[in-house]
Each structure stands twice: as C-alpha cells, then as structure tokens.
Design brief:
388 residues; single chain; two-stranded antiparallel sheet; 9 helices; 2 strands; 9% strand; disordered N terminus; rod-shaped
Length: 388
C-alpha cells in the first residue's frame, strides 16, 4: 500500500471513530430521553388516577363517622339491655369488646378528618400541574424524534463515506464530518448529563406518585373492611333497639277491686245501690319489673312477670349477641396517606414545576440537533454525488 493510501486509511479509521463515538453518545442520550418520556407519561397517568381516586377519601370519612356512631349506639344499647338477667353478662362482655374496638376507629377518624383538609388543595395542585406534565411529554417526544433522525442521518453519512474509495475527497468529507461531530459531541454529553439529573429527579417523583397511588387505591379495600363491620353492627343495633323498646313497654294487670255504687231517689231520699265493679290495676314498665323492688304482693308480681315475659321473650329470642366483628387492617393506610399527602406538594408538584422551568435545556438541544442534522445532510449529499 502506498504512503498516500496508508494516510487515507489511517485518517478514515481515526475520523470514523470520532463519528462512531458521537453515534454511541447520541444513542445513549436518546435512550435516556425515551426513558424520561416514559416516566413523565407514567407520572401524568398516575396523577390523573390519584386525582380521580382521591374522591374516595370523602367516602371513607363518612363511613368512619357512620361506624363510630354505630359503635357508640351499640355500646349505649348494650348498657341499657344489660339489666336483663338472661343476657346481662353477655351484653356487658360485648359492650367491653365494642368499646375497645372503637378506640382505633376514633383515632382513624381524627386522621381522616386531617386528610380531608388537605385533599382539596392536593387535587387543585394536581389540576394545575397536569397540563405542565403534558407539556414536558410533548417536548420530550419532539426531542426523541430529532435524536432518532440525527442517528439515522449520521449513520447514513458514516456508511456513505466508508463506502467511498480512498481519495482526497473522502478525506475532506471525513474531516468535515469529524469537525462537526467534535463540536456536537461535547454538547450532546453536556445535555445528557443535565438530562440524567432530570431523569433522576423524575424518578424520585415517580416513586412518590406511585406510593400515593398505591395508598389511595388501598382506600377501596378500607371501605370494604368498614362496610363489613357495619353490616355486622346494623342487625345487632336493630335487635337491641327492639329490646330497648320493650323495656319501656307498660305492663298493666288487674288485681281485685270494689263494688261500684249508683244512687237513686226514692220518696225524696237518695239511696245507693250496686251497679257494677271497679277493677284495680297495677301498671309498671318492663324495666321497673326487671329491676324489682315493687311494693306489690306475690300474686300480683306473678301476673306482672307473666305479662312481661309474653312481650320480652320473643325479642330476646331474636337477639343474637354472638357476633364477630371483622378486623380493619386498612386503617393504617390513613396514617401513611396523611403523612405522604402532607409532603406531596414539595416532593411532587414543586419538582414538576422545576422541570418545566428547565424545558429550555431540551429546546436548546433540539435546535442544536436540527442544526447538526442539516449539516450532516449536506455532507451526505456530497458523499452521494461521489458514489454516482
């Protein structure tokens, strides 16, 4: 091989390495842009999900209030009916169980009330930032297309120049491409470094958004758990109210009496005569009879007890105190959600706004790529002419 041809070959190999390095760097940059775009799109979709699903927090708050009220009512009713000897012990035991069960419900309701105070501002913030997320996505898509076009154009130029026979023209084309690539590569690397920082930042946002989304979706399960407890309590409360109503029922029994006298006038004299019978009644409500201490004789007490049992026993037979309250493990979600929502603005909304402020980095990269694409296309056209 002649010295001239050797110089041509060495020059081409050396310069093609520069172009290939640029090709590698741009490909890596495009991969990062693609990942960033996918992450931004995922954040956009997750924000929409969170915005929609956060409406359930109001439902949870209402459900917890209903459950808290139901537990309070059940405890009060059990206290009332515990005076009945047949169910007194069991009613007291269940009352203690419900009182203990109610404590974490009260705590969860306090947390739910706090969540409700920040849900509206969070949803408002999401509504404001969603268009910005879409704006970021649009810019990234535009940049990705430019990067892919850049890769295709640069690849075409490299292939075209590589296929030319060694000559001064080939060397000039290589040097021209090499010079252009050298100028662009440093900018590509600088942009990619900036992009990686943004990519790391959006990854943190993605992690935070995913955590919130998971917790909000967990509220659906929590609602089902609360409903399961209410479904057990409602029949119990209904039966206990029936027993309570019976306790206030008045029992009235007759016991003895005395003759009723009427009067008539005979020869101007007012004379009494028997004309009927006054029945004597004893009246007490069921609660008074159960508590005892009534000033009545034994036979009257027997009548009262018999009449009382006639109305009390049917409702006691329909009362089922052997209940089992399902657990509500999902209550812990409220604490986690409250903590994460409190930091949602600083960890999610503010970083997204910062990314929007850095869009000029992407816009500048896009302009640089457009300029280089145009320059490489000229080199490619010049190369194509040499092949003809």
């Amino acid at each position: 091989m002649s010295t001239v041809n050797s110089q041509f070959t060495d020059s081409v190999i050396s310069s093609m390495n520069e172009a290939n390095k640029l090709m590698h760097d741009v490909s890596a940059t495009e991969g990062n842009t693609a990942k960033l775009e996918a992450d931004v799109k995922a954040v956009s979709q997750d924000l929409q999900t969170i915005d929609s699903d956060l409406t359930i927090s109001k439902t949870i708050n209402t459900k917890l209030k209903d459950l808290d009220s139901a537990l309070s009512e059940a405890v009060e009713l059990l206290e009332v009916v515990s005076i009945i000897p047949e169910i007194g012990t069991e009613a007291s035991e269940i009352k203690n169980v419900l009182t203990t069960f109610k404590k974490p419900i009260d705590e969860a309701l306090d947390v739910s009330n706090k969540v409700e105070k920040i849900v509206a501002p969070i949803r408002k913030a999401i509504d404001k930032v969603e268009p910005k997320v879409k704006q970021i996505d649009e810019v990234l898509l535009k940049l990705m297309n430019a990067e892919n076009q850049f890769i295709a154009t640069l690849g075409g130029a490299i292939n075209c120049i590589s296929s030319l026979p060694n000559s001064i023209v080939k060397t000039d084309l290589v040097n021209h491409l090499d010079s252009a690539a050298d100028k662009v590569d440093s900018g590509v690397l600088a942009f990619d470094n900036a992009q990686i920082k943004i990519l790391n930042g959006i990854s943190e946002v993605t992690e935070e958004v995913e955590k919130i989304k998971h917790l909000v979706m967990g509220l659906v399960s929590l609602e089902n758990q609360i409903n399961a407890v209410i479904n057990v309590l409602n029949p119990l409360i209904s039966s206990l109210n029936s027993v309570k109503n019976v306790l206030s029922h008045t029992i009235r029994v007759p016991y003895g009496g005395y003759p009723k006298f009427c009067y008539k006038h005979v020869l101007g004299i007012k004379l009494p005569y028997p004309c009927g019978w006054h029945t004597v009644y004893f009246s007490f409500n069921v609660e008074q009879i159960i508590k005892g201490g009534l000033s009545v004789i034994g036979p009257v007490m027997d009548l009262l007890n018999k009449a009382m049992n006639a109305v009390l026993q049917p409702v006691l037979r329909s009362l089922n105190l052997k209940i089992h309250l399902p657990s509500i493990p999902g209550l812990s979600i409220l604490n986690d959600l409250s903590e994460d929502l409190n930091s949602f603005i600083t960890k999610t909304i503010e970083p997204i706004n910062d990314f929007v402020n850095q869009l000029n980095v992407f816009e500048n990269a896009f302009k640089d790529l457009e300029g280089f694409i145009s320059e490489v296309e000229k080199i490619n056209r010049a190369c194509t002419v040499q092949l003809k």
